[in-house]
């Protein structure tokens, strides 16, 4: 009996061996998968000349368009519009402009027609005047019920299964995984741990102003109107330096908003890997790059070959796109 | 032979057992040591009603006056003055004000006489116009050779041995330890890992403006003049929220600059511990509180008993102060 259990345990250990299991089952056997596996092996094998100590295995990921979808517009913006509608139900007097009225009506085109000033107005009204805890509860509640306007899927299932596998694989190989998002730091933290396994301290993002105050004897972090930090383009390396203080060895993005952090990270000494997710899959996801109003990708595509960055062709390189299929 | 080695290994395991070793040997057997041990045991014992999962065992420490000394003035300011002197040797034209001349001469009183504006001028000139990497190399080089003006000790040995033991003890008990300093984030990162075992990503501090730029084809993070964030007083809970996104369960400070983070952290649900290091030891360190120009502590002392915060009396509660004695 004991002997039989030993045998069984041995067989299970072999079946579960990392040498045999495929850590990236949703990736096709094309070049990007091989390049990812080769890179990770080269920096984790103590006998490799490119070996990197676990403390320096820092991998950063853009969120919108890299870990989850970003069409027809950033999901955080859809949340902001719905929140304005919700707030206006109890107090219609908050709708002080055409932009806010359009947002409350869910009229995306009209809401966005005011450009950056309109965007900031919508974010200010929807993302301030409450505590960080209240805000994150509100976002989590929205994610529980809201559905994507095109696919009908809950947003938590608009993530990319191949990227979820890459995150897990890297953590299994003692990488520390971070999100470096142009989206809001508190917004992303509301789901990053549950959805990506990335805890709050590993989320870097754009930030509205916050303030500490004791309200009715309760110490609170309050979200105010106005921006404190924009974690996009040249802001991404700055955000990484501020939060991590180390130069990542692996960076994944999908747009020219990620160019600076790709450039900075891959210019470091030793083995480095830059990854660009190229949206080529109109059938299963979306196809866009140079002329897209979100996730515009031009310089990254032009310069990736010379810089040795990996361009992942979603249609060709991913066996499946969405989780749970 | 094999049997003997097994016996030896067993004996060594017992001698090194955490059940028998004192994790805080430089603390006297007074109340604070007992309170620290009791708190840590209560949040790490899975059978305890106050058990906290390792992911939420966040402990934050002020630096100046809590982990290392801060008299006669913050060490970063002494560095800034010496750096201005060094810069002026190759280019005396940088000394465009009486403040900067006083700093270059090492005249502390005159340099500080201009108040906050003078302080900012000294920090701007000494902490900008170079890359983060260059700055941190410069700080590390200074720490290699500079000596404290009163004790003659290298600054890396102006840390408090009992606090080094507390940091190690907490990490052994699966706490994540952070620094939350009013001092500069890049300054503190230049020595925090070596001296405290706290890696760059766990250092939060005040920050000068930084900027990403490609200079002579080299992607670089540059330090500019001006302040981006002041991690002091009400800024400390904000800094913790931005960097960690979790409310700490243990906070240690020594001045009213730490009051807000003590208040915020200890107001959270479940077991919490606030710790104030009270400088009472004129013989071995310094004795100061309410009327000090650095590390002023008044409200914290007044309110600690009612708030249940631990006040560590350095003279009474610490067996030794400095490391390596």
Describe this structure in words.
By secondary structure, chain A is α/β, with parallel strands linked by helices. The first copy, chain A, folds into two domains: 213 residues, 3-Layer(aba) Sandwich (Rossmann fold), CATH 3.40.50; 71 residues. Helix content of chain A is 42%, strand content 18%. Chain A has 13 helices and nine strands. In chain A, strands 1, 2, 3, 4, 5, 6, 7, 8 and 9 form a nine-stranded mixed beta sheet that branches. In chain A, strand 4 and strand 5 form a beta hairpin. In chain A, helix 3 crosses helix 6 and helix 10 crosses helix 11. The two termini of chain A are 40 Å apart. The N terminus of chain A is likely disordered. Chains A and B meet through helix 9, strand 4, strand 5, helix 10 and helix 11 of A and helix 9, strand 4, strand 5, helix 10 and helix 11 of B.
Question: Quick summary of this structure?
Answer:
The structure is a homodimer of 325-residue chains. The model of chain A is unreliable at 1-16 (pLDDT under 50). In chain A, strands 1, 2, 3, 4, 5, 6, 7, 8 and 9 form a nine-stranded mixed beta sheet that branches.
Counted by DSSP, the helix tally of chain A is: 13
The main sheet of chain A comes to: 9 strands, mixed
Taken as a percent bin, the fraction of beta residues of chain A is 15-25%
Annotation, overall tally of beta strands of chain A: 9
Oligomer: homodimer
Q: CATH fold name of the largest domain in chain A, please?
A: Rossmann fold
CATH architecture of the largest domain in chain A: 3-Layer(aba) Sandwich
CA-based gyration radius of chain A: 21 Å
Number of domains of chain A: 2
CATH superfamily of the largest domain in chain A: HAD superfamily/HAD-like
Listing every helix as H and every strand as E from the N terminus to the C terminus, the arrangement of chain A reads HHEHHHHEHHEHEEHEHEEHEH
- Tell me the greatest interface: A-B, 34 and 34 residues
Tertiary shape of chain A: globular
Report the end-to-end length of chain A measured between terminal Cα atoms: 40 Å
- Show unreliable segments of chain A: 1-16
User: What is the mean pLDDT of chain A?
Assistant: 93
Helix content of chain A: 40-55%
Task: Indicate the structural class of chain A.
Answer: alpha/beta
For this structure, what is the CATH class of the largest domain in chain A? Alpha Beta
